[in-house]
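User: I'm writing a short report section on ligand binding and want a predicted complex to refer to. Could you take this sequence and alpha-L-arabinofuranose and write out the structure as tokens? A short remark afterwards would be nice.
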Amino acid sequence: MKAKISIDTNKAISKIDDRIYSSFIEHLGRAVYGGIYEPGHETADDMGFRQDVMSLIKELKVPMVRYPGGNFVSGYNWEDGTGDKALRPKKMELAWNSIETNEVGIDEFQEWAKRAESDVMMAVNLGTRGADDARNIVEYCNSKTDTYYANKRRANGFEDPFCIKVWCLGNEMDGNWQIGTKRPVEYARLACETAKLMKMVDPSIELVACGSSGPFVETFGEWEETVLREAYEHLDYISLHSYYGNPDDNSQEYLGSAAIMDKFIRDVIEICDKVKAEKKSDKDINLSFDEWNVWFHSNEQDKKQEPWQIAPPLLEDMYNLEDSIVVGDLMITLLKHSDRVKIACLAQLVNVIAPIMTETGGGIWKQTIFYPFMYTSVNGRGTALDTVVESESFSEGKAENVSIVDAVAVISEDGNTVSLFAVNRKLGEDAELELSGFDGYRLQSHISMEGDDLKAGNSITAPDNVTPVTKEITDKVTLTGGSWNYLKFTK
Ligand code: AHR
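Assistant: Sure. The structure tokens for the complex follow:
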């Protein structure tokens, strides 16, 4: 099969906001305890943070990490994770039926983020709490005033404010699994009043309202419209969450997942712009795709977990080669919408549906999805170019009329490098590329995620079973059937 990819280095989609490469750490399973934090581990630093984990996170170049949830935040009292560790309460954690020791809270996490060369994206509890607690935590984290919560932060040893810029107004408040689920109008009113107070405390913050917890929930659309109509003036972003998977073991259908993400993004943009027009506003509401990934492998094993354990192994999906192709493809889709998707968080970062896995008390290894995320995050900085792809399509199950080849090109700030991220979604059918608009650039390297066994993955005992393939550079550029690719062109 042949496909054509055309760019014009003067025609851009948008400058990419680096925060499109953000991630997520929730108090869930072994993400925090046994993941980023394990005092006593041979690599632990003075605060108990694992340095082996930290160094892999730095390889991923994650600019911002969402915290502390997720479903967890909807039952969380943030004060429990501040101050003297010996006095912190151990609590029943209702989102994941676990025990939360509160050894780590915002005091520690903001310090961890600094050490990981990342910023914190903080979520407030709008499940069991509301506007009052939300404005208090903004004061605690960001205020320089001589007032109660800012002084509490100082008393806890932090003279300087944490300066947390981006805040989420709750999490998935439409979901019936959520602690404190809301009807659209209930959430819209609460989000509006909470946003108002939070910005009164710190007008420099940016706020993300909850969108729907996925494109297939009943209230999708109605939810976004209600929230935006009510709170438009106080908001900066609306969130999107979506997870993909191959539970029916149809790999060809699964490789079409990015088309579902693409439609979800286009639908949300349309709603934002409709409300903008109704309000005759000059302001765009941008998109924060703050939970996305593959998640399905661990569903059955999680049902067998005993409740009320501390840091049980939950959501520990073991990823394979096809998952890594899908993850790379989802990133291509995010970049193609980088004019409106300003924030995106790979959910999650360590142990919980994660690119990085640890053994508690032991070693560490990279999952297959680590690689496409790393290559895109490190090389996909600059400006996304309008990338025109001419390709045949395929249909399989829910994947209808999906382009076989898809791609996005990114030009570096100095113009010396063009990075092309491309996928061939058709199993068993190679695509020979015709490239147009790359004059003056030379293909320097081509790496891919591809292989004979789509189900192969990595583990602590076989950490390099699936790694990127370095392709030979010849006159012809070919994308193997069922592959994700990174091609680097330089002047
Ligand atoms: O990332 C795992 C969970 O998925 C989050 O806690 C929740 O927001 C979503 O349903």
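A remark for your report: The mean pLDDT is 98. The longest helix spans residues 257-279.
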